[in-house]
Amino acid sequence: MIAIALSAVAPGLALLSYFYLRHELEAEPLGYVIRSFVAGAVLVFPIMFIQYAFVEEGVLTGPFWQAYVATALLEEFFKWFMIYYTIYIHKVFDDYYDGILYAVACSLGFATLENFLYLWVYDSLEIAIWRAILPVSGHALFAVVMGYCLGRAKHSARERLWLFMAVFSATVIHGTFDFILILEPNQKLPAVLYIVILWTVALLLVRAANLSNRRQFK
Length: 218
Description:
Layout: H1 2-21, H2 30-42, H3 44-57, H4 63-88, H5 96-122, H6 125-154, H7 159-183, H8 189-217
């Protein structure tokens, strides 16, 4: 059980450390990063309850609705809402990369607790490996896209448009990931290839956010 617990928690912490260290300006206060991580974890139970209610009521059960609405939109909206009201509106959120960092922290808090609960039930190291590669890293990558938009929103005259794009873009890429898994539940290769593409996009957005910081705060 200890091995399963470590397998559940380690990927999220490793990914959070990576994105924390990619910030090229001054290090963000760890207290705020941890707050975002915990805030994401808190979302797991209400979201699981809502999703359970959808299943019991037979609502949004088709592959498209399940992937893009019952899962992606629900989870990404609540994460966006939590990020906006716990960190975005505060002065500590002051540069382009902050959106990525705090969105990743919140999303990985959600993914880590969700992963722990899942592995607690299934108790399999093989499943733990696949969940680290797919759902956990996926949540981090969805968050990079959302966070990039949030960072742009903070410094743009079109703030509302960027805030909308933060939810919309994360929902679309998250929903596509889940749609792939629903259509090909026994085939991991399509989902892995999609994650590779998302990693490429995420690294480009990380570079773009840091470049915007260098231009803005040099």
